[in-house]
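To: structure desk
From: M.T.
Subject: fold request, one chain
Message: Could you run this one when you get a chance? Sequence is below, nothing fancy, just the single chain.
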Amino acid sequence: MQTRRRFNGRIAALALAGAAAAMLGAGATGAVAKELKLSYFMSPKHPMNKAVFTPFSEKLEALSGGSLTVKQFPAGELGKGPQQQYKRAVDGVAEVVFGIPGYTTSIFPRTMLVAIPGVVPDAVTGTEMLWGAKNYLDAEFQNVKLLAMWSNEVAVLISREKPVRSLADVKGMKIRAPSAADAPFIKAWGAIPVQMPVSETYNALNTGVVDAVMIGSSGIGSFKLNEPAKYITTNLPASAAAFYLVMNKQSWDGLTPEEQGWVDAASGLELSRSGGQGYDAAGKRGLKAAAESGVEIIELSDAERDKFNEVSQPVTQEIVDGMLADGIPADAILEQMRQSVSGS
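Reply: Done. Structure tokens follow.
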């Protein structure tokens, strides 16, 4: 009888030990690092990986002591189509999402003001302009947590058969428009806008679907556009593009205050500046690589640039007037963008 009691006592002790171990295991699981999925549609070799995605990931992991980590899902692994990136952010397909307002212009009319041709001179300045008007732009990011927003460099015109040295040269050309917002300006120049994702530009230029591609010069290297190109025209009063890194709202709300503090410290203006700097540097590399591969680089004269500006101005005014009619203070937003970099 005593032997049986001893045996039962050992079984009970083992059961208690097992339960305690299970509880400790559950506690350990709760302390395991939270992994955030970061979705983007470009190759992991894209300049924004080095300039934005990896710095954000590394800083967040360092600040949190490994409690918050980021796993990248490049090249559309979590869903094809750049146009759907914002929806993926809202729906929580990934916790963190990179996207381009130009693909969903109806959601981001205020942010898209930075893309008006002639507004942005370079990526770093464009980034400062966006943040200078952030109090106006926050309304467009209410359904997500805005982590970073930045600009790229001013677009160039990449053509396959016809060099563009003047406003007259673009007449009748089919030109890829970076976004719907660029289309009316391209029409005002006398050309035909063709909107398509950046991922389709190589084949479109190579096969003659378009006569020219309008894109930031950083895209030359990212999408190998120097291969089908023969000419690149710079010094256009062309548009820049805005970019964002956002977090799913529910994922953000699910973080502790301490975790939210780490995310804020790893993102924001400094991370955005890194994105702008990365684009400016990549743009210079793209033009250099194109020249080295035999592409003729054409710098538009100031006199011809003025002609582009002159025909663009009525379009800009129409956009501003239309937004004012819709209750959006477009003139005040543009003024604040300019003041943020003029020091006035």
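Reply (cont.): Confidence is low (pLDDT under 50) at residues 1-31. Let me know if you need anything else for the meeting.
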